[in-house]
Amino acid sequence: MRKENNLTQEELARLLDVTRSRVIGWENGKSFPEAHMTRMIAEKLGVSVTYLCGETNMKSDDMSAFVLGMDLSKLNDAGTELLRNYYGYLASDPRYCAQVEGKKS
Question: Are the beta carbons of 90 and 84 closer than 8 angstroms?
């Protein structure tokens, strides 16, 4: 995804305020970013955390398309925002993320 965004490892590292060697480690699967960093990476690359973690093929968090088949039209704006925030919290915490074959949460 870094390459899709026309970023070098150095440029991504600068955007995230980390070293290039950390970016290399993540890309090689030798290490994994912390939850807060995963959110930041997703934001900088313009994708959802779940897409970044390989848990969905949907690049954005258009929740109405996949949240447990819920009818989100029953929620007002405050309820929708609360649900988005809670989902973001769950999706960024490895204790609540599903294991994807070949990847660690």
Answer: no
Q: Which residues contact 10 (CB under 8 A, 6 or more apart)?
A: 20
* Predicted model pTM: 0.56
Give, in order, the Cα–Cα distances in Å from 38 to each of 7, 17, 45, 65, 78.
Answer: 17, 13, 11, 22, 25
Give me the long-range contacts of 14-17 (CB less than 8 A, separation at least 24).
15/44, 16/40, 16/41, 16/44
- Chunked into runs of 10 residues, the chain (105 residues) has average pLDDT values of 90 96 94 90 86 74 56 78 81 74 47
